[in-house]
Write a structure and sequence with these properties.
Elements: H1 6-14, H2 28-36, E1 61-65, H3 71-79, E2 103-107, H4 115-119, H5 123-138, E3 142-144, E4 147-149, E5 157-160, H6 163-179, E6 185-188, H7 189-196, E7 205-211, H8 212-217, H9 219-230, E8 238-243, H10 246-251, H11 260-278, E9 287-293, H12 301-311, E10 321-328, H13 330-344, E11 360-366, H14 387-390, E12 402-406, H15 414-423, H16 425-430
Parallel strand pairs: 1-2, 1-5, 2-11, 5-6, 7-8, 7-9, 9-10
Antiparallel strand pairs: 3-4, 11-12
Helix pairs in contact: 3-13, 5-6, 7-9, 7-13, 11-12
């Protein structure tokens, strides 16, 4: 990650609406000590260090999120055709850029939503969860049908397909990979998305549509300002709007009664009205670049643009909306950055995977076994972790209160199956029955 110089960081702190992510320092030596107890990766939250010797190019690429939303990032990676596969030059060649690669996906469903840990004062535990996701991808251990298995391959690259995990854990993962001396590439969706703005015009203002948790972290304004500043550009005008409901509506959550179109219209109006308020007494800069800062939001880009078009007919809001908007899909830019970094490190796989080398998908679930901590009220009637237990945990215990198991089409909830089958065809094709 590009580092922000002290003077520019000070400028960020002075900007309205820019709230840097609080750094609650968890001692990395605690995690390192846990790993040192089992360098062969047989116990929970460990990996076999010997797997990272020699040529890693044939290893798969790891992608993780707090749930299934990160599958939209995997879809963008699977369908990217922005480079020539043979000479690596920019430009499509009619072949997917990652056609020879194999992927491993992890959705930490049992511990989601990640955005609530900061609100509960458990940022340190969230950061440990993110490192545990990383270690799972690095290792070969998982659970299936009540047994522990060790046949998952390690990964050569890690894609953080979660805005909140990038906000709170990206720097930790980079530091850990360096500390553990692993030649593993790490790409975060937020940083990649910010770089996408370098390809857009400097004119106008930037709008960020994301979840409430992502907006409260301030990660997008911080990263955008840092990225633009290091590229020699001035301080950008940025307005955020966090939606507590749009991701759930897109997934088809039955508890949400509004349509996608209705929810999008509400969130876009709030963004424009917030931007109008921030421009009071200043030279008006209309919203011309929109960052889709949630993994679900690129799925409804057309509806979002339609909402801006409808609002531009309101004389009170029209001056704050550019006639044409440029949309930044962080997933697409994550895929681009991943390709470039693999090529630079000479880690692209050149041969096609064998038929037996299929992609693997995993979800975490609550451990149904009695809780080793002896606490009461650990599980809800449906078998999920209670909020009291989930947000009451502290780092450093390494208790296997959740298990990682294979994800298939059949175990996805109905809304999730519908979303993936209709919106993410490349992922759906690779997802096992």
């Amino acid at each position: 990650m590009m580092q922000t110089c002290f003077c520019f960081r000070a400028a960020l702190l002075a900007l309205p609406g820019v709230l840097l992510v609080p750094r609650i320092e968890a001692d990395p030596a605690v995690f390192d000590a846990h790993l040192a107890k089992d360098p062969e990766g047989q116990s929970a939250f460990t990996f076999d260090v010997s797997d990272y010797e020699g040529d890693l190019s044939s290893l798969p690429i790891g992608v993780f999120d707090s749930g299934i939303g990160g599958l939209t990032v995997l879809e963008a990676i699977l369908t990217l055709d922005t480079f020539h596969n043979e000479n690596l030059k920019p430009g499509p060649d009619g072949r997917p850029d990652f056609e020879n690669e194999r992927f491993i996906y992890l959705g930490d469903q049992a511990n989601m939503p990640y955005g609530n840990y900061a609100k509960a004062g458990k940022t340190d535990f969230l950061r440990e969860l993110i490192l545990k996701d990383t270690v799972f991808l690095l290792g070969n251990r998982y659970h299936q049908d009540g047994e522990i298995r060790f046949d998952k391959p390690p990964v050569k690259a890690i894609v953080i397909a979660c805005n909140t995990a990038t906000a709170y854990g990206f720097e930790d993962i980079l530091a850990a990979v360096k500390r553990w001396k692993l030649p593993v590439i790490v790409v975060g969706v937020v940083e990649a998305g910010a770089r996408g703005l370098l390809k857009a015009s400097e004119e106008g203002a930037i709008g960020v549509l994301a979840t409430v948790g992502t907006c409260e972290s301030g990660v997008y304004p911080k990263t955008i300002q840092s990225t633009l500043g290091l590229a020699g550009r001035g301080v950008a005008t940025i307005t955020q709007q966090g939606s507590p409901d749009l991701a759930a509506v897109i997934e088809g959550d039955p508890t949400r009664t509004v349509t996608v179109k209705e929810q999008v219209a509400l969130d876009v109006r709030r963004l424009v009205e917030n931007h109008r308020s921030s421009q009071s007494g200043r030279e008006i800069k209309p919203l011309s670049k929109i960052v889709l800062g949630c993994t679900h939001f690129p799925l409804v880009e057309k509806e979002i643009d339609d909402a801006f078009t409808a609002l531009s007919k309101d004389p009170g809001l029209a001056p704050f909306i550019a006639p044409e908007r440029h949309y930044i899909d962080p997933a697409e830019w994550t895929a681009r950055q991943l390709f470039q970094e693999l090529a630079s490190a000479k880690l692209r796989r050149r041969d096609s995977p064998a038929d037996t080398e299929r992609d693997l998908f995993f979800l975490s679930v609550a451990n149904p076994a009695p809780d080793s901590t002896g606490s009461d009220g650990r599980l809800n009637p449906d078998g999920s972790l209670t909020d009291a237990y989930k947000y009451g945990r502290d780092p450093g215990q390494f208790i296997e209160d959740t298990l990682v198991a294979p994800m298939t089409r059949t175990i996805l909830p109905e809304a999730g199956r519908k979303l993936v089958s209709e919106k993410l065809p490349a992922v759906w094709t690779r997802l096992g029955e």
